[in-house]
Design a protein that fits this description.
By secondary structure, the chain is of the alpha+beta class. Helix content is 66%, strand content 7%. Strand 1 and strand 2 form a beta hairpin. Helix 2 packs antiparallel against helix 3, helix 14 runs antiparallel to helix 15 and helix 18 packs antiparallel against helix 19.
């Protein structure tokens, strides 16, 4: 699965709305227009209420109660743009009451929840149906959520993924970097204390001391711990989830929430994510900016050292930057820790093969086949490595024969070729994809040619001939056939293949 495919996984992280009630009648307003608006609201005549409250605001644009009421009226009229605009003005009003601030914060939060969850729902619908319209609707939801609550980083994560899927990586980078600037302070605090996403609540308390305050929510089979710590006079709330008897693991955090966030909102449970950093790493890698990609990758691995998607990327980046020995050393260490992680073994085996260390590479690929007997990459490369081993031995023997006419060559390389053929055949039997693969068939035929197994070569040539309709527009097919015919003294057919290939 590539990174783009990974991003298309269904999301299940929904946010819960908050409950709050406040009586409009409690607002003490002197304006007759405000009084008229209040009566109209009680009668649910919101159009009349809006007309009256707008008159009041023309007379006094700084009437805090009127601004609050306008937000409520717009909410009732389902004018969410008007609601957000009115509440944002009211929240900056010097005379706004604490209970009004709380009410507005909750109402805006609930509207944000609606838009954010709508984004998740539409994205999930896109994953299920591959309908681009659903992807666009998800994007609209998330952009709206950011307008309502720009201090919340949550929508940025999914919005960046959507932009990537749409192919707008430049805009995606901007979104991810915006997320990083918001999340960096909390991340840096945890990192400075050697805390990662695999740390437990106990690790956090040990590093940060006794929480100033703890709240808990029950979940199925466990609890969510919400611990507030004083970090330099600022709040760091760390969320940890305990399922059953397992120690609570870090789930997320909120650090130094802005003043616009209510006390209730500060305690909302958040899931930590490092996917934006991973995306930045993969985008940089795809763009060939390997040093930048390595920087982002290192940040991810500081947060989650066991991330199986990033270990191979980091080692690949090290290799691309000319640090192959370091890359191989790190992979070897990871394999020692997680010997059954196929991804690590495949990458390590490929590096060994690239360095010409075929015997060692074979050992790693055999380890993969022990874990996954039908692993296509391992079977193919076992066949290729044994062929390379045989080729190396054969060249060495030919050199010795050139130096001495009386030298009797060691033909053990033929055994290696036999093993190569066995793995090619095994690959063809276990994988429909490789059964009719012309490269595999050519390689296999070449092995049998060297081993002088003429009957098997002829059978493979016949198999390849039967595939002509499938590969009729593939110039490589005719080049392969031309070579096979030529080496096997089938000159008429060689000429015919040559002519057909020349037309493509």
């Amino acid at each position: 699965m590539n990174w783009t495919e990974m991003m298309k996984r269904t999301l299940v992280i929904y946010i819960t709305a908050a409950a709050f009630a406040i009586l409009t009648q409690g607002f003490q307003c002197a304006s007759s227009d405000v009084a008229t608006a209040r009566k109209a609201m009680q009668a649910q005549d919101y159009v009349k209420a809006k007309t009256s409250i707008n008159k009041a605001l023309v007379a006094n644009p700084q009437d805090c109660d009127a601004l609050v009421m306008l937000g409520e009226i717009n909410e009732a009229l389902k004018d969410t743009d008007g609601m957000v605009e009115a509440y944002n003005k009211a929240r900056q009003c010097p005379g706004v009451k604490p209970e009004q601030q709380t009410m507005m914060s909750v109402n805006l939060y609930n509207l944000w929840v609606t838009q954010y969850n709508g984004g998740i729902t539409n994205f999930n619908a896109y994953v299920s149906s591959n309908d681009p319209q659903k992807l666009s609707e998800a994007k609209t939801n998330l952009e709206r959520a950011l307008e309502i609550k720009p201090e919340y980083s949550d929508p940025l994560v999914l919005l960046g993924q959507i932009l990537e899927i749409k192919g707008d990586t430049t805009k995606a980078i901007e979104i991810y970097q915006r997320w990083w600037e918001m999340e960096r302070p909390g991340f840096e605090i945890l990192r400075s204390k050697n805390l990662t996403l695999v740390s437990t609540r106990g690790d956090v308390i040990k590093a940060l001391g006794t929480p100033a305050l703890t709240k808990m929510d029950s979940i199925t089979n466990g609890l969510i711990y919400k611990d507030r710590f004083d970090v330099g006079g600022r709040d760091l709330i760390v969320f940890a989830i305990s399922e059953g008897s397992v120690d609570a693991a870090i789930e997320g955090w909120t650090y130094n929430a802005p003043a616009s966030v209510s006390e209730m909102e500060k305690w909302r449970t958040r899931s930590a994510t490092i996917s934006p950093l991973k995306s930045l790493a993969f985008i940089a890698y795809q763009r060939g900016t390997f040093t930048e990609a390595l920087t982002w990758t290192n940040l991810v691995m500081q947060a989650k050292p066991t991330d199986q998607e990033l270990v191979p990327l980091r080692t690949q980046l090290l290799q691309n930057l000319g640090k192959t020995d370091e890359a191989m050393s790190e992979l070897k260490a990871q394999i020692a820790k997680e010997p059954n992680t196929v991804l690590y073994r495949l990458q390590y085996a490929a590096m060994l093969s690239g360095a010409g260390r075929y015997e060692e590479s074979v050992a790693e690929y055999k380890g993969v086949v022990t874990i996954e007997p039908t692993n296509e990459t391992a079977l193919y490369n076992l066949a290729a490595n044994y062929k390379n081993i045989a080729s190396t031995k054969q060249r060495a023997e030919l050199e010795k024969m050139d130096k001495s006419k009386n030298y009797r060559p060691d033909t053990t390389y033929l055994t290696d070729l036999k093993t190569s053929a066995e793995y090619f055949e095994r690959l063809r039997k276990s994988s429909f994809k490789y059964r009719d693969d012309i490269v595999v068939l050519e390689q296999l035929a070449n092995v049998y040619e060297v081993r002088k197994e003429t009957s098997k070569v002829k059978m493979l040539i016949m198999e390849l001939e039967a595939l002509e309709d499938k590969y009729r527009t593939n110039k490589d097919y005719y080049l392969i056939m031309e070579g096979l015919y030529g080496r096997n003294k089938m000159m008429d057919k060689m000429k015919e293949a040559q002519e057909k290939g020349a037309k493509l």
